[in-house]
Specification:
Layout lengths: L1 H15 L12 H15 L5 H9 L6 H19 L14 H15 L5 H9 L8 H23 L16 H14 L5 H9 L5
């Protein structure tokens, strides 16, 4: 029974690159409960050294705080996959405010040397920018608005966003942002990588 659950955890890790199974993981609630039980057994010194070593060998997360960090790390990986490889999450990320704040604190903890080498290595392994400058934050905001334009195009089949357009949150900034990109392009001030991204969705210059 234990070995069967251990191998289910290995399968989970292979799929999610993590051993932190959320307690509400509906795809396998039994596995989520088993993972919590292993932590409790370790705290109570009621687990054999053999099992402890097996769990250690696959990078098992013993501490609940580490588990929370790992959960947000996975959300950062998902953000990167959805945003053309970018880990520049704005601090006030509209899609995931908790992730935006978490990313901000990772950089802050790095500056004051309050983050472990292991966590630094994990963040850098996915291309995370530890020394984020103001320009990086601005780039993150640009990408966030770009993603809103991509969503607009999927819905309206066009990148012609009216200047007065407002979304479901009564946010009118997308139309202004689009106009700003055209102005920057006409004045030859638009970064090449931004122009390439806009061209990739057939932006109407």
């Amino acid at each position: 029974q234990w070995n069967e659950m251990f191998h289910r955890l290995i399968s989970y890790k292979n799929q999610h690159n993590s051993t932190s199974v959320p307690y509400n993981y509906t795809a396998d609630l039994k596995l989520a409960t088993w993972v919590e039980t292993q932590r409790a057994n370790c705290r109570n010194n009621s687990m054999s050294d053999h099992r402890v070593n097996l769990l250690h060998s696959i990078g098992f997360v013993w501490n609940a705080q580490d588990n929370k960090w790992d959960e947000l790390f996975q959300r950062l990986v998902a953000y990167k996959n959805q945003h053309n490889g970018s880990t520049l999450v704005p601090k006030e990320c509209e899609a995931d405010t908790k992730l935006g704040r978490w990313v901000h604190w990772q950089r802050y903890n790095y500056r004051i040397k309050m983050i472990s080498v292991h966590r630094i290595e994990r963040l850098e392994s996915i291309g995370f920018v530890m020394n984020a400058t103001y320009a990086c934050v601005l780039d993150g905001k640009w990408m966030e608005t770009y993603d809103r334009l991509v969503a607009y195009k999927k819905q309206h089949k066009s990148t012609h966003v009216p200047h007065t357009y407002s979304d479901e949150n009564n946010d009118i900034r997308l139309g202004r942002w689009v106009a700003t990109q055209r102005t920057a392009f006409n004045q030859k001030k638009l970064l090449e990588k931004r122009k390439d991204l806009l061209n990739s969705i057939d932006f109407a210059w």
